[in-house]
Amino acid sequence: MAIRTWGRVLLTSLGVSLLVGAGQLGVAYGFGLVRFGRAFADGIENQWHAQLTWVAWFAIVAAVTGALAADRAARRLGYDGGLRMLAGLAVSASIGAAGVALITMPAAHAARLTDGTDPAGAVGTAVLAGAAAGLPLAALALWQRAYAWALIAVAAAAWLLAVASAVPSFGPGQEMPAVRLGVLDPAAFSTGTVQRLAVVVMPSLALIAGAAVGAVARRREWHTAVIATSGLLGAAPLAVAYLAAGPGGPADAYQAAPFWGSLVALAAGALGSLLAVVTHRTDVKDPDQNPPPVRGEPGDPDSSPGGPGSSSEAGSPAASGVSVPDVTLDPAAPGAVDPRHGPDLGESARSRHSDKLHRLDQHGRTSQYRHTGHNGEVRPPRNEGR
């Protein structure tokens, strides 16, 4: 049963990667992103390198997508082969992505190059380079979910840029524009504006994607090293695709501008994810650390005199560890005060105290107390009924 499941998962990885690669080529042909049937001469020689960039990138995306889809299918079947399954899915997806060369090479024969290069061979080499680069990227995406999010985010944004560049030229009588990977290339923009955007767009995209994915991964408390490198990995397919196609010739900067922009995007993506790590602040306090004592509010039982948190108890000699000698006072000594009864109030004070008690007795509020006649002490009466 395990062998059968393993075979199904590998076939899923192979088939999905091949299907995704072919689907991307179909969309690229429809939007005019890839057009082999023309002569790349008379000032547009570097557009051929832009075509190679697209097909290399398609292979990378196909490999990563096929591996992720097969991993999802394996989990639904309840199969988890560990590192062996991870490596197998990455290899199978890379093989399926390499099959895209069988679709692109026949169409590339229609291209006419001035330098005598075999167009079919150049396209096949670019696809194989992309498929080879897709193998470690797919393995990393299967290993860490943050890497998969970063790769998906950058790939989706690159496709949105391509569609936004091609759609304005769908009107009747308008020529399809030459759109580069990761560049906003609408026909309405001037050449200077497009060239400046070619250097800025990919680094900006990688920076935003790295910061966003890093923030989400940090909130989930994933490993710091994974978070810090997620932005770098997200921009890697763009850089690898441009490296596979090359910076182009010296005729113009049509291919060189996005080529260097893709390399800068690697640093920008890494910076975005590092910012997510540095700016993270946790609001959870350590329960093992006791907070400093805070003065209680009025009415707090812990802040009342003699309560558990009172300052008089904390500052008493017994609490501070200072020994206090036992001092016994002689009640017969001159000026001595009996601690049980307090100071001698004198005859006049005792008489006033007695008169007050008698006045309260008339109102029935102190009927259970009587005056003992000794230093003004008031004690409860004896229970005469017992």
From TrEMBL:
This is Uncharacterized protein. Residues 282-386 are annotated as: Disordered. The chain crosses the membrane at residues 52-70, 82-108, 120-140, 147-167, 197-217, 224-245, 257-278. Residues 301-325 have a biased composition (Low complexity). The keyword Lyase does not apply. It comes from the Bacteria. Residues 338-364, 374-386 have a biased composition (Basic and acidic residues). Keywords: Membrane, Transmembrane, Transmembrane helix.
